[in-house]
Amino acid sequence: MKIVLPGGTGQVGTILDRALSAAGHEVVVLTRRPRRPQDVAWDGAALGPWAEAVDGADVVVNLAGRSVSCRYTPENLRAMMDSRVDSTRVVGEAIAAARRPPKVWLQMSTATVYAHRFDAANDEATGVIGGTESGVPDYWAYSVEIAKNWERTQAEAPTPDTRKVALRAAMVMSPDRGGVFDVLLRLARLGLGGPVAGGGQYVSWIHDEDFVRAVEFLIAREDVAGAVNLAAPGPLPQREFMRVLRRTWGVPVGLPATRWMAEAGAFALRSDTELLLKSRRVVPGRLRDAGFAFAWPGWEGAAGDLVRRARAARAGSGRLRARVGGG
C-alpha cells in the first residue's frame, strides 16, 4: 500500500514510518523539512504540490500538530490549536480534490478529550467528554477544545469516498530517545519517579507495537469509522505505574512530589503539569469490540519489554561510541 504520513517526523510518526516501511509499504512523509527521498515538503496550512502524494494513495494517517511537550502558555495553546485544525482542514481539502482519493483517513486525536476522573473508565460509548470539570485549571478545558475541534474538522471534511477514523491515542510508549517513556524512565533512574500529588491520577498508555498493530487493524477494518480509543486496556494510577517502572529498571525508591514540586519540575523541563496531573482513565472499547487482541495489555509486561529494548539501545550506543573513539 501507499501510505501518506502528514507530520510523520515526530515520535509517533517515526514509529509508524519505521514499522510500515519494514512491512513493505510505500511510506511518504509530509514534512516542513524534507531530508530523505520519501519526504515531501508541505506547510501544513495550504494546498500545494504535496497534494499529489495524496492523490492515488491508499491511506492517509495525519499526525501533524505542534508538540504538547511545552509550557501551556496562551501562545503555545493557540499554536497547538491552529496547527492541528489547519493541517486537518488542508488534508481534507487534498482528499476532496483527489481524482483517486484514499480509501481511509486516520486522523490523530487524543485521549485528553475525556474528563479528568477517577471513578470510572472512559470508553467511546459511555466516556465523559471533558471541559466542565470543577477543581482543575481553567486551561485544561482549552486542551479539550483542541481535541474537539481537531475531530470536528475531520468529521466535517467533504470526503464521501474516504472512510474516516479519529485516533484518540493515549501516551505511546516507545524506548526511542525523547519520547514520553524516555522521560519517565529518566525520572525513575534518577530516583524521582515517585507519586506525584498523591499519585491517584490514572495513566493511560499504549505500547508502540500495539499502536502500530491497531493502526494496521483499523486500516483493514472497513466497518470501523469515527472515534476510536488507542489505549491499552489496563490504565492504572500514576503511583503504581511508576512503581512498576522503577522495579523493572531496578530502582528501589522514587521520591514523591507535591503539586508545587511538579509545577517546578515541569517548568524546568519546559513542559506542563497537565501531562502529570490529569487523570486519563481511558479504555479501548471499540477496538476490543472489533476483536483487536493486544500483544501488551498490561503495564508490567509492557514495561519489561520497553526497558529491555532501552537497555539494548543504550548498550549499542555505547559500543558505537567506543568504536568511534578508538578509530
Automatic annotation (TrEMBL):
All copies of domain DUF1731, residue ranges: 273-305
Alphabetical list of Gene3D superfamilies matching this protein: NAD(P)-binding Rossmann-like Domain (3.40.50.720)
Tree of life domain: Bacteria
Domain NAD-dependent epimerase/dehydratase: 4-230
Family: Belongs to the NAD(P)-dependent epimerase/dehydratase family. SDR39U1 subfamily.
Name of the protein in its database record: TIGR01777 family oxidoreductase
Taxonomic placement: Bacteria, Bacillati, Actinomycetota, Actinomycetes, Kitasatosporales
